[in-house]
Amino acid sequence: MRAMFLGILSAFFFAVTFIANREMALSGGNWMWSGSLRYFFMLPFLFVLVGLRGNLKPILQELRHHPQNWLIWSTVGFGLFYAPLCFAAAYGPGWLIAATWQLTIVCGALLSPLFSVTIQTENGPVVLRERIPVRGLALSVIILIGIALMQLSQVGQAPLTSISFSVLAILIAAISYPLGNRKMMAYTGRRWDTFQRLLGMTLASCPFWLLLSGFALVTAGPPPIDQIIQSIIVAVSSGVIATVLFFYATELVKEDSGKLAAVEATQSMEVVFTLLGELIFFGGSLPTHSAWIGLLLVIGGMILHSSLSQSRSPLRNRTAESNASE
């Protein structure tokens, strides 16, 4: 029960990202600043977190001596994940972005053959290539149908080009996030804990954010003070508080795959919290009937997918750890 509560609480703080990004977009904030500022403001908090655990020096040495993989996959996993999400916020309500973002479950499953896992046998270690989880992918169809219904509900309320831009941007993010994170986990193995890897990837993605913020400065000028404040809120809420809560929740139940699946399924509440937050703060209209059906299909599909995955993959615990860097 405690782990479930912490999982739901982490989903609440993760939802702040979608609400704040939508608010910044509606108030005219440039999406490039929204993305860059979050990661810039995450750095001091991560330095403190890792430093208090006495793990700062080793990860900084690792980045200095082996920068290539960190730079490449951190740019993919963080840069090409979060920048498109900020871009998409200009083209639809936060609850729709949060729900469509669950495409990452489908993309993560389709990317499985790109990775391998080492299994210890009586004859020694054996390297096996991950296979596409067919049953899990079949359940993902529920999520895809739900997303399609929600997007179709926007036809007539938003131009088709806007819907297309939004879906394309989220699709790029949904591919980049599991690809970058899992490539980094495969590279680092068990050498670094979640907070060290989060700090390392944030630092290694900074060249991308510096380039993006430089382009934003030239084309849009400096960010307004409201956007700076909201970016700090996102960095603390999603980048620090939600990450710590979710990681701690998975740590509490990591030896019980059933409970771990239940904790992961709590992240479906992000969509609900985002919808409630937008209704409270923006006074937006309720989704249409077809959008409600789609929303329920997405949440239900996420819960079923998480439950099925408890016995599916040897990489399960590492996948739960990857979720914590969202």
Automatic annotation (TrEMBL):
Transmembrane regions: 31-50, 70-91, 97-120, 132-152, 158-177, 198-222, 228-248, 260-283
Keyword tags: Membrane, Transmembrane, Transmembrane helix
InterPro entries with a match to the protein in the record: EmrE
Pfam families: EmrE
Name of the protein in question: Drug/metabolite transporter (DMT)-like permease
Organism: Sporolactobacillus spathodeae
